[in-house]
Amino acid sequence: MPKKTLENLTESMYYVLMALMEGEKCGTEIADYAAARTDNAVVIGPATLYTILAKFQAEGYIRETAVEGRKRTYAITETGLAAYQAELRRLWRCVMDAGVKEVSGHEETDTAQTAPVPLSVL
Amino acid sequence: MKKQTPRKRHLFPCPFCDIERIQQWLEEMHTQGWALEKVVYFQRLPLYAVFRQTTAQSVRYRLQPAEDYFATIDGPYDAGRSQQDAYREFGWDYAARLPDFYVFCTADPAAPELHTDPKVQAMAIDRLRALYGRGLKMSILAWLVGSRAILQDLSAMLDGFGPVIFLAYIISLVLGDICLLVKYLYYRQAVESLSAGRPLPPMKHNQIWRLLLWIAVALFACTLAAMCRTVWVTRP
Question: What is the ipTM of this complex?
Answer without folding.
Answer: 0.77
